[in-house]
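Sample pair:
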Amino acid sequence: MKLNLTRIFIILLAVVFCYSACKKTATKPVSTSPITDADAAKQIALSLNQSLTGQLGGANINDGAKAPSSIVAGKKTKTVNSLNPLCGYVIDTAYTHLVLPGDTTEWLSGKFHFVYNCSSSYVDGYTVYDSLKVENYSPTFLDEYTNVQNYTFKATDNTYQSATLNGSIVTSISHEGITPPQIQNQFTSVDCNYQLKGLLIVNGSGTTDITAGTATFTSEVRESDGPVGSKTYVVDYAGSIQYLGNHQANLIITGGHTYLINFVTGTVTQQ
């Protein structure tokens, strides 16, 4: 049933995007989360990887120095390999979409701003701002999810086999349980901010790999198990992801443990 699939998707995203994780700096609710630090480390690292590789829509580092096909579909635009470089060419679009699948309303909106950059006589990368907001509403819940990409991708030479990436990715997810008529019975929100510095992306082997660079992150989780005005618990997290190559990275929890993440197998090993 589409309602169930939609709700499950949004809830899973709320878990995938760094839901419970790094060093605790405030009091948690009495009921403890089943997610361990190792689980959270995996979810934080893999969620960032999903954003970078286009699994959440928008720009995709696997595509090299070109705009996402889903955005430019139907547009008569040149490609990177055309004779005339696209230096300074801009793709700027906003979109909205409303779905009424039975008892759930889904509202999707976003903005995509993409600029081709050039060095010398050839296109060597792009700067992208991509935001997406999804809202799912029914008589019993309200789920909201926002993902914002804002970074510059720059090829190191005209082979496009390696590139650097600098910028940021920000996510915000919330879930509100509702008891009819319109009374909040539970609320959870998760905000994450990733700062991407010097990521070195290598495509030469045919499989994109991030071989160097660091992504620092901060996040805040808010939880309330009652109506509006009930006590809210706030927990802040911080740490960094250090890319090692061979599809691996160390995720370091500030004041806590270090975890080795394997992006191919999804395994997490405490160091």
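Residues 9 and 32 are 23 Å apart (CA to CA).
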